[in-house]
Write a structure and sequence with these properties.
alpha/beta; six-stranded parallel beta sheet; four-stranded mixed beta sheet; 10 strands; 17% strand
């Protein structure tokens, strides 16, 4: 089975542990993951975070795909979008209001920034599920307002919002759900019926979570072999614009 990991990281964890591209690729080889998309683990300066993942991409351009980590309140947000998505051809944009310290529902800059991102045709990832800063519902409104952008909710809303998110996004076709961190059986077995296999995307949240566990749980979610192809790689390829469904 081809496996693409749509959600990885690079740099230092919140506790200060450093991780580099060599460690990432070593784990990918161990578990049979062909490609991974990454954003920075932590930090507040757009350029520093995005240069880090670009350096990792240049080390393993066939294995690692960079995402732009954008703080919408930073004064260089629009310049960074043009550099990362234009000149450097990153494959997506990551927002993390908890890491960057803002309330998405009190950040009017997001609407203009999403309009800017839309010109480049990439998908948008957002961490949703760590209240009070990272609740999912404002991102649902933004997804409805920007239907040409595919949004990926990492962690399906995490442990706090998993049940509500899988129900709430049923009828928002441009929202995809990524699988890492969720371990509640009821959420994992219900999500397929709520949104369908073509909107569920495998991710590991590397290096925070056990890669082996994140892979193994997918096989217990009730997918057919054909559906597993979408979850493990076809949906990621679509978000990365590598192939069309």
């Amino acid at each position: 089975m081809i496996m693409y990991d749509v959600h990885g990281h690079m740099g230092k964890t919140s506790s200060g542990e450093p991780y580099d591209a060599h460690a990432l690729v070593k784990d990918m080889d161990k578990y049979g993951i062909t490609k991974v998309g990454i954003s920075s683990l932590s930090g507040t300066v757009n350029r520093v975070q995005n240069d880090l993942v670009y350096e990792c991409y240049n080390q393993y351009p066939d294995r690692i795909l960079p995402y732009a980590f954008i703080n919408p309140k930073a004064p260089d947000a629009h310049d960074e979008i043009d550099l990362c998505l234009g000149e450097r051809k990153y494959r997506g944009v990551k927002f993390h209001s908890w890491k960057h310290g803002y309330y998405a529902d009190n950040t009017p800059q997001l609407d203009e920034i999403l309009t800017h991102i839309e010109k480049y045709g990439v998908h948008v990832q957002t961490h949703v599920g760590t209240s009070p800063l990272s609740t999912p519902f404002v991102w649902m409104r933004l997804a409805k307002k920007h239907p040409k952008i595919n949004f990926l909710f990492t962690h399906m809303g995490c442990r706090e919002f998993g049940y509500s998110v899988i129900e709430a996004v049923r009828d928002i076709p441009n929202i995809y759900l990524e699988t890492s961190v969720i371990y509640e059986t009821d959420v994992l077995t219900r999500v397929k019926d709520c949104v369908g296999a073509k909107r569920i995307v495998f991710g590991t949240d590397w290096p925070y979570k056990s890669v082996e566990c994140e892979i193994e749980k997918i096989y217990h979610m009730g997918f057919t072999d054909e559906e597993l192809e979408y979850v493990f790689h076809k949906n990621a390829a679509k978000l990365w614009k590598e192939e069309e469904d």
